[in-house]
Design a protein that fits this description.
single chain, mainly alpha, two-stranded antiparallel ribbon, rod-shaped
Length: about 70
C-alpha cells in the first residue's frame, strides 16, 4: 500500500514533496482502518439478518435448518 505521488523535474529527476508523503501516509492509515472494520460490519449484518429470519420464520424453523 505504499502509494507515492512522484513529480518529474526538468532533468528527469523525481521529487516527492513532504505534503505528498504525508497524504500517502494518511491514506494508508485510513485504508487500514476501513479494512479492520469490514469484518465487524459483516458480523453485525449477519446477526441482524439472523434476527430478522428468526422473527419472520420463527425459532423452530432456524433450529430445523441448523442455523
Amino acid at each position: 500500500m505504499g502509494r507515492r505521488v512522484v513529480r518529474i523535474g526538468e532533468k528527469g529527476k523525481c521529487k516527492v514533496t513532504s505534503r505528498e508523503k504525508e497524504f500517502s501516509s494518511e491514506l494508508d492509515v485510513r485504508i487500514a482502518m476501513i479494512q479492520a472494520l469490514i469484518p465487524l460490519g459483516l458480523e453485525a449484518v449477519a446477526e441482524e439478518l439472523k434476527r430478522e429470519v428468526e422473527m419472520l420464520a420463527g425459532k423452530t424453523c432456524l433450529l430445523q435448518a441448523g442455523v
